[in-house]
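Quick one, tokens below. Sequence please?
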């Protein structure tokens, strides 16, 4: 049974302050929760509504194998906790893992850096895209969306649990460490070289920047190359998540 105090506590985890204090975050939706339960992430609570019970058998099995507490609550209480507009009736509380520093001495494949991508929907979508194309290492700058923001988690559709995520780094330190290990820094820039003609290599850090501000002067100064998606219509630019999908596809089919 979930007490009123627990309901209040669970709702507080939608705020970064409390996530950081408790080292916990909430994942909502069948796919995200299921992927989380199958992952290396610790989980302390699985929660679903009576209407979801028929779909929860596999999750209950996973929870039982890991000795994870699970509870059934009413729709009204669930909706008070859920952050999504149309909740599916299932959520879980996961542990925020201990922060790790990216180690470029052990990396030999493209690394993705999100520079001030403040919209959690875009951040989560790019994480999902990286997972789809098999890019295992994603670094987010200090002013990017919080990895464990409910919308970031939801937009990643479970991919957050599959790849290595490094948060709160600035491009200055990352570019310096990467270049020591012979990585090239590439910035996605509308004025850059066409991705179809660019000569791709494995040891690259691809920087995707904030849509509103664009590529910062510092990112331009440390970039070895700039790359762009060719356009054929009248749109001014692509959404950063859309541009990332096109670029990462090109990298993947070229490097295989």
């Amino acid at each position: 049974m979930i007490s009123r105090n627990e309901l209040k506590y669970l709702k507080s985890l939608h705020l970064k302050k409390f996530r950081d204090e408790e080292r916990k975050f909430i994942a909502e939706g069948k796919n995200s929760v299921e992927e989380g339960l199958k992952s290396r992430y610790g989980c302390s609570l699985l929660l679903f509504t009576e209407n979801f019970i028929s779909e929860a058998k596999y999750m209950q099995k996973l929870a039982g194998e890991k000795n994870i507490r699970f509870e059934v609550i009413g729709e009204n209480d669930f909706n008070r906790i859920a952050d999504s507009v149309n909740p599916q009736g299932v959520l879980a509380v996961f542990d925020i893992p201990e922060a790790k520093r990216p180690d470029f001495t052990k990396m030999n494949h493209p690394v993705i850096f999100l520079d001030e991508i403040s919209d959690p929907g875009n951040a989560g979508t790019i994480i999902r895209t990286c997972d789809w194309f098999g890019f295992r290492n994603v670094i987010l700058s200090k002013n990017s969306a919080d990895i464990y923001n409910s919308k970031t988690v939801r937009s990643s559709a479970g991919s957050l649990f599959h790849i290595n995520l490094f948060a709160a780094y600035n491009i200055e330190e990352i570019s310096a460490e990467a270049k020591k290990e012979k990585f090239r820094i590439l910035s996605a820039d509308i004025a850059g070289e066409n991705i179809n003609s660019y000569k791709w290599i494995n040891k690259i850090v691809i920087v995707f920047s904030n849509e509103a501000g664009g590529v910062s002067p510092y990112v331009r100064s440390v970039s070895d190359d700039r790359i762009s998606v060719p356009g054929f219509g009248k749109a001014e630019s692509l959404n950063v998540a859309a541009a990332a999908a096109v670029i990462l596809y090109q990298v993947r089919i070229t490097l295989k």
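Strands lie at 24-28, 43-49, 69-73, 90-95, 111-115, 137-141, 164-169, 184-194, 204-209, 225-228. The chain has two domains: 4-95, 104-255.
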